[in-house]
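To illustrate the input format used throughout this study, we show a single complete record. The first block contains the structure-token representation of the backbone; no residue identities are included at this stage. The design step must infer an amino acid for every position from geometry alone.
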């Protein structure tokens, strides 16, 4: 008889996740399996593959994150909100803790079941912390451009680490006008970013609102990226473009980001969705959606 594991298909503003609860039994799924399951042609499809494990630090859960390319990454804000939703329902608490490889994050119950706020911690701005391959004294704008020297298409991004590295290019026109789908792969893998980087285009509308388009490291264009929204909001305030609390518009929906002055923590609030429960054969990676009566737990 084939060995099977159940999964949840979830999303935060269209940022899609496969979630497996491995707190009791750890399924053996390597990078090849993750790539196959993340591919919508061969699996349920997702941007990130999430494994829930027992927390060594004593948090409510440890969240392990793999991108669609099979590589493990440090942080994912939208996934944290989705896992926060599951834990809030599972425990009945109003506040839960989620450990990641870069620390413990806190999730709070929102005004409705689908709304979750996550404390994403304190951003880092030092060039070594992002990291960059060479020193920059001021990371509000570094020397990097795309296009002709005298008329670059994109230039002078802000860089910040919010659990993972981000570069934000500020644009005056519609974010769809700058060819991020073409420039994203090159910028993600630019030599200035030794760990690669998430690349965003940000258009500031006013002191409380901006629009973001994201090329996510190891994923590609994404409908939403929570850490990118956090990075852009923080960088916008550092550059005096916006206030500390902003509404960030993404293709999949909106996130409210507040960079709290009292302790420099970033608070991210937005909606989540549980799409369905499914089942994966560990023998051949075939999968199926489960009807409600077949769900376990």
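Output of the design step:
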């Amino acid at each position: 008889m084939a060995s099977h594991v159940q999964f949840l298909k979830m999303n935060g503003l269209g940022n899609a996740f496969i979630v497996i609860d491995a707190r009791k039994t750890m399924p053996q799924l390597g990078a090849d399996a993750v790539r196959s399951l993340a591919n919508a042609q061969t699996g349920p499809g997702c941007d990130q593959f999430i494994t829930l494990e027992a927390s060594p630090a004593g948090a409510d859960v440890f969240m392990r994150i793999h991108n669609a390319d099979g590589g493990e990454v440090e942080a994912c804000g939208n996934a944290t909100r989705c896992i926060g939703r599951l834990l809030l329902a599972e425990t009945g608490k109003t506040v839960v803790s989620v450990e990641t490889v870069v620390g413990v994050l806190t999730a709070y119950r929102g005004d409705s079941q689908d709304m979750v706020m996550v404390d994403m911690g304190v951003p880092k701005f030092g060039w070594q912390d992002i990291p960059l391959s060479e020193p920059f004294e001021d990371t509000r704008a570094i020397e990097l451009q795309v296009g002709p020297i005298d008329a670059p298409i994109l230039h002078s991004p802000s860089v910040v680490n919010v659990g993972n590295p981000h570069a934000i290019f500020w644009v005056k026109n519609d974010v769809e006008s700058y060819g991020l789908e073409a420039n994203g792969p090159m910028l993600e893998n630019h030599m200035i970013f030794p760990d690669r980087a998430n690349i965003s285009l940000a258009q500031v509308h006013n002191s409380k609102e901006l629009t973001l388009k994201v090329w996510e490291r190891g994923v590609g264009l994404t409908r939403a990226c929570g850490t990118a929204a956090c990075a852009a909001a923080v960088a916008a305030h550092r550059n005096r473009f916006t206030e500390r609390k902003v509404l960030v518009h993404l293709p999949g929906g909106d996130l409210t980001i507040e960079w709290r002055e009292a302790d420099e923590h970033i608070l991210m609030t937005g909606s989540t969705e549980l799409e369905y429960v499914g089942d994966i054969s560990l023998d051949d990676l075939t999968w199926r959606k489960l009807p409600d009566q077949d769900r376990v737990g």
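Structural context for interpreting the output: The two ends are 22 Å apart (CA to CA). The chain is about 15% helix and 40% strand.
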